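An instance as discussed:

___
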Amino acid sequence: TLNVYANYDMASGQVCDELEVDLHRADGCEESVEYRLNAVEKAVLLRKMDAYCQEQTGQTLKDYSAQWMAEEMAPPTQPTM
């Protein structure tokens, strides 16, 4: 099987520069390589990621990322007695 991962940097709002590509062979061997993206490929992936995010969450990728980061940065709530 071939797994390809595109990563998104929520802080910068950009697709990361490289794809992670993992090849899993039938004999159990695994190989990992990185593929460097050019600006056009990053732009295409960003549009695809945004469309998928809107389909899954109803929010743009930018809005979803901002909400997620705000929740992660929020101090933990203390139980009330």
Notes: The chain has one domain: 2-63.
